[in-house]
Amino acid sequence: MISLENVNFSFPDHENCEVLADIKFAVKQGETLVILGESGSGKTTILKIILGLLKPTSGKVFVDNQEITQLKEHELMKVRRKIGMVFQEGALFDSMTVGENVAFSLREQSAMSEPEVETRVHQVLSFVDMEESIDKVPDELSGGMRRRVAIARALASCDPKMMLYDEPTTGLDPITADTICDLIVKLRDTQEVSSVIVTHLLRDAFKVGNRFIVLHEGRILFEGTERELRSSTNPYIQKFVA
Questions:
Q1: What gap in Å lies between CA 7 and CA 137, rounded to an integer?
Q2: How confident is the model at residue 19 (pLDDT cuts 50, 70, 90)?
Q3: DSSP states along 93-108
Q4: How far from 133 is each of 97, 124, 173, CA to CA, in Å?
Q5: Which residue in 8, 20, 115, 208 has the most C-beta neighbors within 10 A?
Q6: pLDDT per residue over 23-79, tens digit each?
Q7: What span, in angstroms and rounded, lies between the C-alpha atoms of 81 and 159?
């Protein structure tokens, strides 16, 4: 579903400062890959490259078996419609209700009729258990509720088989974080959604992940299962998981 082959990335005005170096991994259908690492390790940059928001300095990126690094913007838009993206703070429109937020891309980018849009909005809000909040605005919602609405919006816009999450549980209390983790697992188990999750929170990572990558200074230091991660003899990883 998603794969990166020997991806390197440096910002154009900092060519001697590699953000990512020789990144290689693949995510299968129905798999959840968690990318772990400290701030500044390049985790979010990987998500932006998968979405085509950044072009790698070298290497190849495949989304749904299509190589995307040389695509034009209008072609990338078609690729992005296959991927649901959940940003760290939800990125909801403050002036819109929950229902309007979820419906926004459907009304702007799809050929759905208004009754079809409303049906779809209710479906995805029901999936994330937020249907009763359809008329509320973001300021009336808790942090966890905003994240659930953001997931509903991603599901509504493209019915994705691929989801990207940028720190989905950061800033949430443990009980609310568990709710988001349960929702991510529900998507995987009921709809075979493939996910890439960026986080630095091990507790939540182990709740949702099938496989794990640890980034350190822009390089993959580890790739494997939870058991392999916990039993690693690498000093940095031992300190990271302690």
A1: 40
A2: very high
A3: -TTS-HHHHHHHHHHH
A4: 9, 12, 20
A5: 20
A6: 999 999 999 999 999 888 999 999 999 999 999 999 999 999 999 999 999 999 889
A7: 9
Structure tokens at 234: 């690498």
161: tokens are 């088989």
Sheet bearing 66-67, strands edge to edge: 18-27, 2-10, 58-63, 66-67
Using a 10 angstrom Cβ sphere, with 0-12 exposed, 13-18 middle and 19 or more buried, the burial of residue 101 is buried
Please give the pLDDT value at position 242: 84
Nearest to 196 by CA among 21, 17, 22, 26: 26
Whether residue 127 contacts residue 148, with contact meaning beta carbons closer than 8 Å, is answered with no
Residue type, 81: R
Q: Which of 139, 141, 119 is nearest to 130 (CA)?
A: 141
Which alpha helices (H) appear in 128-230, and where do they start and end? 143-158, 174-191, 202-208, 226-230
- In the block, which residue shows the tokens 């690729």? 79
Spatial contact of 110 and 149, defined as CB atoms under 8 Å apart? no
Q: For the whole prediction, is pTM greater than 0.70?
A: yes
Query: Smallest Cα–Cα separation from 117: which of 98, 99, 92?
Result: 99
The fraction of the chain above a pLDDT of 90, given in percent, is: 75
For residue 161, the model assigns a pLDDT of: 85
Place of tokens 């989905």: 168
Helical (H) or strand (E) element with 124: helix 114-127
Domains for the chain: give ranges and CATH numbers: 1-82+161-242 (3.40.50.300), 90-159 (no CATH)
